[in-house]
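tool_call predict_complex ligand=adenosine monophosphate
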Amino acid sequence: MKNYFALLFAFFLLYGCGGSNEKKQELIPYELHGEAQGTTFTVKYLSKDSLDLSREVMDILVNIDQELSLWVDSSELCKFNRQSLSTRYIDSSSIYFPSVFKLSKEVFQRTNGAFNPAVMPLVKYWGFARKSEHPEQIDSLKIDSLMQHISFNMVQLVGAGFVYAVADFDLQLDFNAVAQGYSVDVIAELLTKNNIEHYMVEIGGEVVAKGKNAQGEWWTIGIDKPKDNNTDRELQAVVHLENRALATSGNYRKFYEKDGIKYSHTIDPSTGYPVQHTLLSASVFASDCGTADAYATAFMVMGVEKTKEFLKKNPDLKLDVYLIFSDEKGEFKTWISEGIKEKIDEEN
Ligand code: AMP
Ligand code: MG
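tool_result ok
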C-alpha cells in the first residue's frame, strides 16, 4: 500500500441490461476504476436509477487513508505510532481506526497471535515498511529485542473509540493486513445504503460481491497462480462469489531474495522471522472482507496443516479457504474447504 491516492477514474454507462435470471427490470450498469492504497480498484454495480457514486467512493478511500495509512504522515495511525506514551489519542471523529482496531483484536485473539498488527517493528526490520531496507546481515539479537515490543495485548481501547492505554511505549501498529479488505466493506456498505442489490467491489484483489452481474450471473473472480512476478496474471482458479467476500494473501506478492533464500512480507510473530513454509497463497471466503483479509494473513503464518485444524476448531466463523502450496517437487497443489468445492473451477 504505497502512494495511496492518485485516483484515476473511468466511468462507463450502458443501458438495457438485466439477464435472463433477473425479473425484467432495466438496470443500469456502472463501472468505476482507479488507484488507491498503492494498488488498483474496481467497483461495478447495477442501479435502478441513474446514480453516479464515484465522488462518494473517492471520499471514502481518502478518508480511510487519513486514518489508517502508513504512507500518509498525518494519518491517525501514524500519529498513534508517534505517541510514545502510555495513553494515546486519535482524533475523536475517527471511525475507521476504532473499527479496524476492534476487528484486529478479535482476529488476534482467535488466531492466538498469528495475526498481529503490532508486528510493525519487525516489518520495519525486514525492510517491508516505508523507508526501511532489507537487512544486510540477519541480527538475531536485534530480532530478539524487537520481539519484546510486539504484544498487541499491550494496547487496549479505553472507553470511547479514540483513547488507548498502551503499556509498552515502543508499541506501533500496522493495519496493512486488514485495511484493504476493510475498505472494500466500507464501499460495499455505501452501495447497500443506496439500495444497490447487485455489485462487486475489489481493491487489490480483495473482493465483495452481492447479487448478480449485468449478465444475470454470479460474479466470477480469478485467483492468481502464486508465481513470482505473475504480472500477466495467470490464473490458478476461477471462483463464483455468491453474496460473499474473498481475500487472498500470498508470499509471491511481496518478497525479496538473498543468498538463495526467499523472505516474504508475512512475519511469523512467534519467531520474528518471515514465514518459511510450503503454503504459497491463502484465499479466504467470509461474510465480510476485513475478516477475510485478516484471516488470509493469519493462515499464511499458520501454514497448511494448522489452517485446516483451525477451520475444524472454529466452525462458528463460517470461513472457507482455498490454499495453494508446493509439494516436494515444487509443483503447485491445492486444498479446498468443503463449503466452496462447488464454487471453484480450477484451471489446468
Ligand atoms: P496481507 O497482504 O494482507 O497478508 O498483509 C501483509 C502485510 O501485513 C505485510 O506487508 C505487513 O505490513 C503486515 N504483516 C506482516 N505480518 C503480519 C502478521 N503476522 N499479522 C498482521 N500483519 C502482518
Ligand atoms: Mg490480509
